[in-house]
Amino acid sequence: MTDEKKYMDFAKSLVGLRHQDVLEVGGCISPEVITDYEPRSWTSIDVNPKRFEGKTTFNGNFTFTAENMSVTDIKHPDNSFDRIFSVNCFEHVDDLKKGMDEMFRVLRPGGKLFTIFGPIWSSPVGHHTWIEYEGHIYHFMNGVFPDWDHLIKTRSELKSDLEERYDEELAENICRYVYDSSDINRLADGDYEKNLKDSNFRVNLRVRKKRGKKPSKKRREAIIYNYPSCNDPTVTEYLLVVSKGKISIRDTFTMYFGLVSQLMNKILQKVFPRSV
Ligand SMILES: C[S@@+](CC[C@H](N)C(=O)[O-])C[C@H]1O[C@@H](n2cnc3c(N)ncnc32)[C@H](O)[C@@H]1O
């Protein structure tokens, strides 16, 4: 199953997509995939039009639009959408508070936002380094430097450490990427929690996924001392369902039933990888 289908299945079982006007924030699911979920309309917005390449022409059973637009300034009237779908995007939005306000504004009363994202900056590989230097890719998944060092060390300490492993120019490039690039917003997990609390949304479901890695007690204390808004540096992903106003008991039941069936499916796929 593709990632697109995996996320769409999740959203379908938790918030329902059939006959809904859906706004996708940050990314562009292929219309050929969307069609199976029978929305009334699907509007993808992203600040990088490359996401839309090859996906903008679709003559199917729903209206499909892809727009070069920021979530912080959505050019649609109030109350335009029934659902918002956003995967792996919030951590890249520079002004997430503004983005939350805009998403709330364009949702219809009773509308729901389904999102999965990672509080990247406070996670083990939160520096998110991804650069090419002399034909080699230095990627955060391949241990460019020890987990959480971008939070524990000062910039100049990190640079001296890097100079012990790499040449001076590469060490400087890595530091620039870590601290200056606009790739991620550098919010810690607690900042996302605060944004959510301060927004007008009602939280229907909040799942925090943690992936094993834990800093030592001393390193954890250093992280939290330097970044008081980091509550838990082991959190690597959130799944949220929030709504504009109250949702019914029936919708709440459907959402939890959907969550359980998704989890059961995941377990079955692990146990019987081929047959499910
Ligand atoms: C890591 S990609 C995820 C794309 C896709 N959802 C996926 O899971 O493959 C993050 C996307 O968010 C987009 N993005 C960043 N800031 C944005 C903003 N302010 N408004 C809309 N999209 C934004 C980026 O251009 C990028 O396409």
Automatic annotation (TrEMBL):
CDD domains to which the protein is assigned, alphabetical: AdoMet_MTases (cd02440)
Keyword Methyltransferase set for record: yes
Superkingdom: Bacteria
Gene3D superfamilies xrefs: Vaccinia Virus protein VP39
Any single GO BP term: methylation
Domain Methyltransferase type span(s) in chain numbering: 40-114
Alphabetical list of InterPro entries matching this protein: Methyltransf_11 (IPR013216), SAM-dependent_MTases_sf (IPR029063)
Keyword terms, alphabetized: Methyltransferase, Transferase, Ubiquinone
Family annotation (SUPFAM superfamilies): S-adenosyl-L-methionine-dependent methyltransferases
Molecular-function annotations in GO: S-adenosylmethionine-dependent methyltransferase activity
Protein name, per record: Ubiquinone/menaquinone biosynthesis C-methylase UbiE
